[in-house]
Structures are given as C-alpha cells and as structure tokens.
Amino acid sequence: MAENGGNAVDAAIAAALVSINTEPGVCSLGCGGYITVWQEGSAPVTLDGYVAAPGKGCNTDCSERVSVAIHMDYGGGVTTIVGPDTVGVPGGIAAFGSASKQYGLLPWKVLLEPAIDISRRGFPLPQASYDYLVYSGTPIFGRAADGFNALHHEDGRLRAVGETIRIPHLADTLESIAEKGPEEFYSGALGRAMAEYTTSSGGRMSYDDLTSYATIPRESLIISSGAWQIATNPPPAIGGAVLGAMLQLMAHRPIHHWNEASLMQLIEVQRAVLGYRREHLDHSNQLATDAARLLELAGTGNPDRVMEAGSTCHTSAVDNNGLACSITMSAGYGTGDMPPGTGIWLNNCLGELELNKHGLDIGPPGCRLPSNMAPSAARNDNGEVLAIGSPGADRITTAILQTLVNHLYLKMPLDEAVRHPRAHVEFTDEGYRVACEPDLPIGQLPVPQRPFDSLSMYFGGVGAASWCSDEGCCVAADPRRSGGVWCSSTTLAS
Length: 494
Known about the structure:
This protein has about 500 residues and is of the alpha+beta class. The protein is built from 14 helices and 20 strands. The protein has 2 domains: about 250 residues, no CATH class; about 220 residues, Glutamine Phosphoribosylpyrophosphate, subunit 1, domain 1 (4-Layer Sandwich), CATH 3.60.20. The strands form 5 sheets. It has a 7-stranded antiparallel beta sheet with strand order 7-2-1-11-10-20-19, with helices on one face. A 6-stranded antiparallel beta sheet has the order 8-9-12-13-17-18. Strands 14-15-16 form a 3-stranded mixed beta sheet, with helices on one face. α9 runs parallel beside α13. About 30% of the residues lie in helices and about 20% in strands.
C-alpha cells in the first residue's frame, strides 16, 4: 500500500483485511471492531464498528430461536453459545469503509487486492488458528459444510499447521465488496444472503439491521502519562477505560526495571482494575458513568480506592507524516454458521459469555455490545508517534499495558518491549491468581500462581509500530502469535 502511495490508514486496513480472512476460527469477515486514528495536529478519533444487537423488524419468538451451548477445553475450559441467535450485526466492513473514505489515500478496491489474491490462491493454516480449531473445528466449525471442508481433509482430520486453506466463495465475496463498495456487505446481495440465512435459521439479524448499520465516530479516550498522550477506545467499550485506569495507577509508581517489588505493583494494579471491571463494568447498564468513576478512582494513584469501588486480530501502522492507525477486530468464538455461497463465517458475539454478561437479549436492536478491545495511538512530546494494540480477550489490556510500561517507562526498544514476559491476574471461584510466563521475578512473591513453561498466545499478541524524526521507524509483532512486520521509507505496519 505504501509503495502505491498509501498512508498508514491504507496500510492498516489492507493488513487487517488479510488478517481477518486468513486466521480461520480466530476472526472472519463477519466481524466487528474499532479503528483509532490520530493525525498530527488533530484530535484522535475512534471509529466504532463493533457488533450491534440485532432484531430490527424481526418478530421471532423466543421458542423458535436457535442457539447451542458448547463447552471446549480451549484456554483451560470455556463455554460459549453458538447458532443463528448468537449472531450480531457485523460492523468491520463498515468501519474499514469509513476509515478509508475519511483518512485513506488509495481507492477502496486497491485495499482489498491482497486479501482477494491470498483467498483465491489459498493460505497456510496459522498456528493460532490450529490451536483453537483443535477444540472448535467439529462442534463449531462443523456447522456449515463449506466451512468444515475448508478446514478438514476428506476423512475428517483437521488440516495441519502450514497446510493450504481455501475457503469456498470467499474470494468472490471480497471481489464483490471491492467492486461495489462496503455497502454491498449491508444492502447488496451479500447483505440479503446473510439476513435471509440468519432469520430463516432462527436468528434475529435482519436485512433492516444490516441496512441501518452505521459506524459511529467517537472522541478517543485520552490518558496522560508523563511526556505521552495515549488515545484509546472510549465507552461503551470497556477495554479503553480499563487500560487507561491501569496506566494511571502505574504512572504513580515509577519503575526502573522488573524486580519483585515492581512486579508486585503490577499485580496490585491489575487486581484492582480487573476486579472493578468484574464487579462494576461487566454488568453495567451505565458504562460511561461507571467507566468515568473507574478513571477518577485510578487518578488518585491508590489501587485500594479502585478495589472499593477472544479471539481477535490486530494491526498497527504509522507513517512519516505522523499519522497513526490502530485496528482491532473480533468475531467472538465464531458461530460456525456460513450463509451458502458467501464464504462468510458469522460471529457469535452475543454468545461470548465471559464478555457479554447480559446474554442473548442484551438490549434494544442497534445497541453496541461490550468489548475489551483497545486499539490505541500515542504521541510523545519529542514527536514520536506510536500505534499499538492486541488480541487476547481479557488479556488485551494487560498485554498492552505491560508493553507500554516497557517502552514508555523502561525505555526498551519496541521489539524487546513486545517480547518481554508478561503476567496476568485471573479471577477464580477461590479468589485470584497470577498467570505468568517464565523469567519473571515472581517465584518468591506471596501470590497464588499459574506458571507457563514458555511465552504463550494466552498473554495476547501485541502489534506495534512507531516513528519519530530522530530515530526513524520501528515495528514489532508478537512472537506469541503468527504475525509479521513491514517497513518502508514512509509507512510501517505490524
């Protein structure tokens, strides 16, 4: 994209379109998400293209709706709900279209060319997809013949890492979106096919839902941290406020290197903020108010004050004009349903139980679902611009937090900051424990621990890109997740 005269937004969109279509099980074209864009000299904006509650013009009785609870051993054990009634209105394509129109330089059609080419030729099954499909390949992605056959051999064996995947009809679908524009996905033949399949199968996502969907531009949530301004995802998403609160608390306890004392501070901060989220945000009907309260409490610098109170794809890009673009997209755990002839796996975001605590009837049609995603952009007084984000369900914010602490506070190079081992506070019925990667000074700390033997994609998959006039460009992709980096004289992407 850069070689064709594109900017950071063009590069990020094109990379995201490739990523969501080549990590089956992890994401899909039926996704939703957020795009944070920060132009030099302008206020940052987060484009809300997340999944919306369905049901406009739909009178399907509760007894006729179709959903199935699936328990998998993935990630230590997870229960998710799949089926047509778990499908929310996907906003990913709308968000890409809005970002391209408002901030990009290249024609829409050009942005889809790499994804079309790769989908038609086939692509190697990534490790991240395989690790999930081992558990979900049959119970979830066996729900549609085209989808199952794309992922399995004729004898039913899951294809191995590196084997070629070709999803029937996907390249044609992408070509149609490229030729006719993003609206084809909503009001065109594709939109009709998705709506007819969903409603006829017992779901609620209607043609009215799709044709009325619109990306919502929101003022990014801005957190100040020393010489840095960090722009991230605002409410009604949860992720940005959680990340901002942890950053504020960490700013009150400066660290110079990771030792037992600084690691204990990190654990206390995570425990406080993630505990607040669990108690107050996950079930909130007033997210903006409760998120503002979290940030107010975090601003005191006292974790005790706070305690009183997916699966995902990510791309980051910056360019030498100071433009930063950060994109995070999710399709939940996937429902496995695929409208015939489209190659589009639908999302199951209403059935993502650990995030959507309100269940299948979350609210009025059109309301946005809750999200942990926090695509972020940051600027330093010295002119450095940074785009960063991560997949990883409730580990998204802790992965980004630790990478930012490493780079912003400890002055680690970006690739070292991304690779550094991480810790994440988990809550169980017995209390809390700390999941941790090796080589952290945690062994003697008086906290319950769940150690990992190596770096793990459980702890996210941070992608980050930075640029400044003095040092030029730097880009990093997380070794925990299949990913890549690219850098030119003008634009870089992760």
